[in-house]
Amino acid sequence: MSIQESKAEKMLGIFFVVLGILLVVAIIPWQIAAVETEWYNAPRFFPYVISGLMILLGVLLSWSGAKKKNMEGQETYSISKNGLMSVVVTLLLICIYVGALHFIPYLPCTIVALGALMWFFGQRDLRKLIPIAVILPVIVYFGFTELLKLRLP
């Protein structure tokens, strides 16, 4: 399957606009508690800013794709079966990881998930895979728990 550059930009732009609206209307109010404080200091402020930027950039991307519709020399993107399979396996591994976080602590779960993703995407050298899969989650864990004083699962 192949798709022209202009059509891909329009489709991605529409996707980002719909996702941004879904975030503003449903997900942010559902997931982040409303707090009576200054508007710029509220927990929902930054997610609303990011969602607004997502909507704006989605509109601009769709507009750019619409302008390119009849232009010559557009790139054609093709979707291979292997590329699609990589996306599906990655999403499946991430869903398993998120589900496992309910039962397994952050560090061991993240080390295994990162190692599995690295292995799946072709890193077979254990001298590189193991240190990266262990050190990065430890750095993130330390940064959140000690520096930001946030509790991870």
Automatic annotation (TrEMBL):
Task: Tell me if Transcription is a UniProt keyword of this record.
Answer: no
Q: What is this protein called?
A: Tripartite tricarboxylate transporter TctB family protein
| Residues of the DUF1468 domain | 13-153
Return the InterPro entries for the record.
Answer: DUF1468
Top-rank lineage group of the source organism:
Bacteria
Pfam families, per this entry? TctB
Q: Which residues cross the membrane?
A: 12-33, 45-63, 83-99, 105-122, 129-148
Q: Which UniProt keywords apply?
A: Membrane, Transmembrane, Transmembrane helix
